[in-house]
């Protein structure tokens, strides 16, 4: 990353790996469980969070010197909620099809703890450019995990990826299914997302021992 | 944080100004975008109705509407008649598709007569009767349009939802689910209304038996599926007298 200074680059890179919001900070688990039954939903959700967190972080950062500390959480909530409503309205008016695909995600974004977490932990104490990078970095870190989980859940649960039947047709018994393979319907249920996230956490910590907390 | 942002007066003042700014911004946006949104919803209704009677641009696996620019033309071309059934009265109304099914359901709850819109379409010499249905899924409203022939055999169905779980309940608007309804009978041989149940443990996953009054349920979406069964049974039953009157 030639354009960014080392410090700035770290703002984007850290949350992708060693300070990942889902696997290390264990934030945003709720949406990671709820919407990762298929890959497309994971991607859409990641992009929505990317937008809201990037812009929201900048807005909060610009206002950081005038926000009264007693009501800062409420102010943060208002900023997220209004951003989300604005996005929702504009999409409904000018990109109706897209807004139909997003439908439920829009509401879910407001409740995503990563967003409030980054506002509180970073945007309130840093300038807009840094806050923007931090927002993008964390949203990407969130998105990466979402997409990995969505990939495995859709592949093993429905035998498809983005709706394409990559393993053959389960009813016509073609492809893998001709060999007696069956979809694991259990993968479609939320608890399996937790297990997949657990496996990612395990792999990540066994690769980088520094991440393991003292018991 | 500097001292001036800690005082009560400042805090209350900030809150008031912030609420006023955000409130008026959102109100302004909402009211200025409302005509666009309404128009989009109107076109979508036309697309939904056309979809149910088979006027769509489906490819092999995914559901696609006719494009928004031609939806109005196509609607005028294929929909020959729109009727509103109100008790025993049957009136024609070229804006019947704008009737809000939710409001009509609320009216029925208050003891008033519910107006039932029905769209009569013609395609390739076949007549389709498209009825709107509405019900509850797991999280929020679900609705749809069912196209039938004069014997109440389903010719096409479109379902949609407000907030069902992505990848689970939201699959009611996927082709593999909606297409299962095609050819299913709603009436028994003796002409009684039986409806269609979204059934688990269906022994007919390829859906070859069209008179079992069942379609295969979706994994992980039991309550949404039950909602679909309930809205088909509840709302389409109301149209039975009309279909009986067609036979006379």
Could you explain the architecture of this structure?
The complex is a heterodimer of chains A (215) and B (248). Chain A is mainly α and 215 residues long. The model of chain A has no long low-confidence stretch (mean pLDDT 84). Chain A has one domain (19-206). Chain A contains 8 helices and no strands. In chain A, helix 3 crosses helix 4 and helix 3 runs antiparallel to helix 7. Chain B is built from 6 helices and 8 strands, in the order ααββαββββαββαα. Chain B has helices spanning 8-52, 68-78, 101-109, 175-178, 222-236, 240-247, and strands at 79-86, 89-92, 115-123, 126-136, 141-148, 154-161, 197-199, 214-216. In chain B, strand 3 and strand 4 (126-136) form a beta hairpin. The N and C termini of chain B lie far apart (82 Å). Chain B is globular, with a radius of gyration of 22 Å. By secondary structure, chain B is α+β, with helices and mostly antiparallel strands. The model of chain B has no long low-confidence stretch (mean pLDDT 89). In chain B, helix 1 packs across helix 2. In chain B, strands 2-1-3-4-5-6 form a 6-stranded antiparallel β-sheet. Chain B has one domain (40-247).
């Amino acid at each position: 990353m030639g354009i960014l200074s080392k410090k700035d680059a770290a703002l984007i890179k850290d949350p992708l790996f060693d300070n990942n919001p889902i696997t290390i900070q264990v934030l945003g688990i709720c949406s990671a469980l709820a919407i990762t039954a298929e890959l497309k939903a994971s991607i859409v959700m990641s992009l929505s969070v990317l937008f809201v967190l990037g812009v929201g972080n900048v807005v909060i950062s610009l206002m950081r010197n005038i926000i009264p500390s007693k009501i800062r959480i409420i102010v943060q909530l208002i900023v997220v909620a209004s951003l989300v409503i604005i996005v929702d309205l504009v999409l409904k008016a000018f990109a109706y099809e897209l807004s139909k695909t997003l439908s439920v995600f829009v509401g879910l974004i407001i409740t995503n703890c990563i967003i409030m977490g980054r506002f509180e932990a970073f945007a309130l104490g840093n300038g807009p450019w840094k806050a923007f990078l931090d927002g993008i970095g964390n949203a990407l870190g969130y998105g990466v995990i979402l997409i990995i989980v969505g990939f495995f859940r859709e592949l093993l649960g429905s035998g498809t990826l983005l709706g394409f039947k990559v393993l053959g047709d389960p009813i016509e018994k073609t492809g893998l299914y001709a060999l007696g393979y069956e979809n694991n319907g259990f993968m479609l249920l939320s608890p399996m997302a937790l297990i997949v996230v657990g496996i990612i956490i395990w792999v990540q910590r066994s690769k980088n021992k520094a991440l393991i907390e003292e018991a | 944080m500097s001292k001036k942002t800690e005082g009560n007066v400042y805090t209350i003042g900030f809150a008031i100004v912030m609420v006023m700014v955000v409130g008026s911004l959102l109100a302004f946006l909402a009211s200025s975008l409302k005509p666009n949104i309404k128009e989009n919803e109107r076109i979508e209704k036309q697309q939904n109705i056309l979809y149910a009677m088979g006027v769509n641009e489906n490819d092999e696996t995914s559901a696609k509407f006719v494009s928004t620019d031609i939806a109005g033309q196509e609607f005028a071309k294929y929909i020959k008649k729109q009727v509103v059934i109100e008790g025993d009265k049957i009136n024609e109304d070229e804006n019947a598709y704008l009737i809000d099914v939710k409001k009509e359901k609320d009216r029925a709850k208050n003891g008033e007569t519910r107006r039932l819109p029905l769209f009569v379409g013609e395609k390739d010499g076949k007549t389709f009767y498209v009825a709107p249905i509405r019900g509850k899924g797991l999280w929020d409203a679900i609705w749809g349009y069912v196209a039938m022939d004069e014997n109440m055999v389903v010719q096409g169905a479109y379902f949609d939802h407000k907030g069902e779980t992505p990848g689970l309940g939201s699959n009611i608007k996927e082709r593999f689910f909606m297409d299962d309804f095609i050819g299913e009978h709603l009436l028994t041989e003796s002409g009684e209304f039986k409806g269609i149940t979204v059934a688990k443990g269906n022994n007919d996953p390829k859906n070859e038996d069209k008179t079992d009054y069942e379609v295969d349920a979706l994994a992980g979406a039991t309550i949404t599926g039950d909602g679909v069964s309930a809205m088909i049974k509840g709302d389409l039953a109301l149209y039975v007298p009309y279909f009986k009157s067609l036979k006379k």
